[in-house]
Write a structure and sequence with these properties.
The radius of gyration is 26 Å and the shape is globular. It has one domain: Glucose-6-phosphate isomerase like protein, domain 1 (Rossmann fold), CATH 3.40.50.10490. By secondary structure, it is of the alpha/beta class. Helices cover about 50% and strands about 10% of the residues. The chain has a 5-stranded parallel β-sheet with strand order 2-1-3-4-5, with helices on both faces. The chain has 10 helices and 5 strands.
């Protein structure tokens, strides 16, 4: 007499479309999703635009104040020393990032250049298609990523590390893969971004600019930048006139 075998994980299972039709009924005492949303809104009502603005101002100040105690002045000084050492060997500074960090990278490259440290924006995506040729041995790359896990950026850093290129990571996660690949870590983390969603990069953007502006200040102090030098680099515009005392 044949005996029936218990099915196992390796058996093929035939699933009919009707088997996938599931009707979800609220459990006893459980409100439908629409009612749950109404209750959540009642408990945490949406703020008005003016309230959101005021809340963000307060949050941004709190986050930068907290970062003031978390960011390490010693790490910023080490990053400045690394850049100065690179310059002594004929090296240059490149700044890169993906997404919102790309816009920060462009600003920082311009800021450093205008204060005595020639710097170049490095397009992280184009870097993998030939632009990596702009980076030479003994150069420095400042890599910006809040999460420190952006795949495209990590690929770029991996390629750069194969040469004699030092990496300065600016990230909100000091334990991230980017941080572990870097020679110096500049911490720029926040707990809240601000806004109704608390997802859109806002406070974290301010944090990165905050830390990188501090790096530019350190380099400016090392080089003893004068108003006369600054004026030569700004022959036009209000900043040039201000430097010349006009």
């Amino acid at each position: 007499m044949a005996t029936m075998r218990e099915p196992n994980a390796f058996d093929e299972v035939s699933v009919e479309p009707s088997d996938l039709e599931v009707t979800l009924e609220p459990a006893v005492g459980q409100m439908p999703p629409s009612d749950l949303m109404k209750e959540a809104t009642a408990i945490n009502p949406r703020k008005s635009p003016v309230e959101e603005i005021e809340s963000f101002f307060d949050l941004a100040i709190d986050e930068l104040t907290a970062l003031r105690t978390r960011a390490e002045a010693d790490a910023i000084e080490r990053a400045a020393d690394l850049i100065l050492e690179s310059e002594s060997l004929g090296g240059r500074v490149h700044v890169t990032g993906i997404g919102k960090s790309e816009h920060i990278a462009r600003y920082v490259a311009a800021l450093l250049s205008s204060t005595g440290t020639p710097a170049y924006f490095l397009h992280a995506t184009e870097c993998l298609h030939g632009s990596v040729g702009q980076v030479c041995d003994n150069d420095i790359t400042i890599a910006i990523s809040n999460s420190g896990t952006t795949p495209e950026l990590l690929h770029v850093i991996d390629v750069l590390r194969q040469s004699k290129v030092k990496i300065i990571a600016v990230t909100g996660d000091a334990d991230s893969l980017l941080a572990r690949m870097a020679d110096v870590i500049l911490y720029a983390g926040v707990d809240n971004e601000g806004g109704a969603l608390n997802i859109v990069p806002r406070a974290s953007i301010l944090a990165k600019v905050y830390v990188l502006c501090a790096l530019s200040v350190a380099l400016e102090a090392h080089k003893g930048l004068t108003r006369e030098q600054y004026a030569r680099w700004h022959p036009g515009g209000a900043l040039g006139r201000l430097a010349r005392g006009e």
